[in-house]
């Protein structure tokens, strides 16, 4: 019988670095978007719920200011 090890807990990028998502730092926000400029799911980004919601809000704010694209054709 195989011994099960506890899964390594994935930590939130923003909690780990003691940062908050900010629309002015759009280069950092790009890593949480797909090639087609869609916001990645929480399972893919490994963010906590609090920071995923803030991230989505900041990406949408950056899109309105034309810092990030809505779609890539």
UniProtKB/TrEMBL annotation:
What InterPro entries does this protein map onto? Ribosomal_bS18 (IPR001648), Ribosomal_bS18_sf (IPR036870)
A Pfam family that this protein carries is: Ribosomal_S18
Gene Ontology biological process: translation
Picking any one GO molecular function of the record gives: small ribosomal subunit rRNA binding
**Which GO CC terms are listed, alphabetically?**
cytosolic small ribosomal subunit
Q: Which UniProt keywords apply?
A: Ribonucleoprotein, Ribosomal protein, RNA-binding, rRNA-binding
Keyword Ribonucleoprotein attributed: yes
Subunit (UniProt) = Part of the 30S ribosomal subunit. Forms a tight heterodimer with protein bS6.
Which family is it part of? Belongs to the bacterial ribosomal protein bS18 family.
- Cited function: Binds as a heterodimer with protein bS6 to the central domain of the 16S rRNA, where it helps stabilize the platform of the 30S subunit.
What NCBIfam families is this protein classified in? S18
Q: What is this protein called?
A: Small ribosomal subunit protein bS18
Q: Which organism's genome codes for this protein?
A: Hydrogenivirga caldilitoris
């Amino acid at each position: 019988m195989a011994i099960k090890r506890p899964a390594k807990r994935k930590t939130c990028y923003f909690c780990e670095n003691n940062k908050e998502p900010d629309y002015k730092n759009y280069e950092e926000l790009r890593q949480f978007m797909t090639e087609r400029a869609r916001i990645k799911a929480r399972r893919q980004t490994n963010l906590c719920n609090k920071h995923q919601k803030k991230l989505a809000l900041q990406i949408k704010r950056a899109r309105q200011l034309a810092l990030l694209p809505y779609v890539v054709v």
